UniProtKB/TrEMBL annotation:
A GO term, aspect molecular function: transcription cis-regulatory region binding
Keywords in alphabetical order: DNA-binding, Transcription, Transcription regulation
InterPro entries on file: HTH_LacI, LacI/GalR-like_sensor, Lambda_DNA-bd_dom_sf, Peripla_BP_I
Pfam families named in the record: LacI, Peripla_BP_3
Native source species: Microbacterium ginsengisoli
Protein name, entry field: HTH-type transcriptional repressor CytR
PANTHER family: LACI-RELATED TRANSCRIPTIONAL REPRESSOR, TRANSCRIPTIONAL REGULATORY PROTEIN
Domain HTH lacI-type: 6-61
Keyword Cell membrane: no
Amino acid sequence: MSARRATIADVAREAGVSPSTASVVFSGKTQVTDATRQRVLAAASALGYTGPDPRAASLRRGRSGIIGVVLGGRLRSAFLDPVTTVVLDGISEGIAPLDAAILLLRDDATETGPSLMTAPIDGAVLLGCSAHMRSSLDDVRGRGIPVVVIEGDAGEGVPQIGLDNEAAQRHIAEYTKGLGHERVVHVTMAFDASTRAGWAPSVDLDAITVDVTRDRLRGALEVYPDAPIYHATGSLIDEGYAAGQAILALDPRPTAAIAQTDLLAVGIVRAALDAGVRVPEDFSVTGFDGIRADGIAPHRLTTMAQPAADKGRAAGEVLAALIQGTPTSGVDFASRFREGNTTGPAPQA
């Protein structure tokens, strides 16, 4: 059996001061003499006392000191996407005033372990908002838990951190059109939780439950409404490589692919190069995100660069304000076009 953890009362008794005096030495909220501080710290060191339990402090404030971040799909897959890690870094910066920890949660009703409905959290940031999540948000908010959503519609009263997904994807499609490309393929992320990689025979945009997928595809379809659509199951290089192989097998072969993420675009570029197809002389590829794309040098993706860190930071700051009782609203961000060397004029027939 482990020894009992020393308490502030033990430290006070050892130092010969009152418990309240020992407490303010650790809180720093009230001035004490240097001699008293040194005596209390020496007693704490002798007893192995490292300070008040932060969980107890949180509970006294009526908070758990934990912020939930809800990710779609498998957690291990999420960390293969640099955009997700940058957004998480931004959230961490935004909630810094709360001195809170982050608990990662899955948007999956079948998964065991803590969920948005059961986890002891003070607030939550949702990366997107699936149909399943929307259906449970009323109950979550009924618990008095503030919620902020990044790139998703969680309904009235939930602040949104938005990105110009539709307009940005339309912009890069128009750029591709301006290069003379007519035989183009759209490569998207998952339509919903049950998506299996492959060609979409037909598309009902209203039936796509992943907000980012739907919005980016809507923008691209405004420029290329009849282009075939290949949907992946997630933003992964391997998924892009498989898409690239499927695209290059078409006859006649398309001259360009408009991918919804940079990771998908990297996979497509690799598939083309492995097949002996020149990029961009024979085949152009665009992405979306603006991440550092490794493994395709000397190629640099033509892409829409999004402010991922700023999105995360804004979500954290908005959530922190809500938890502290300050009314606030969402924030909208814009992507920036960045021309690389994976796009060029359509090859002559």
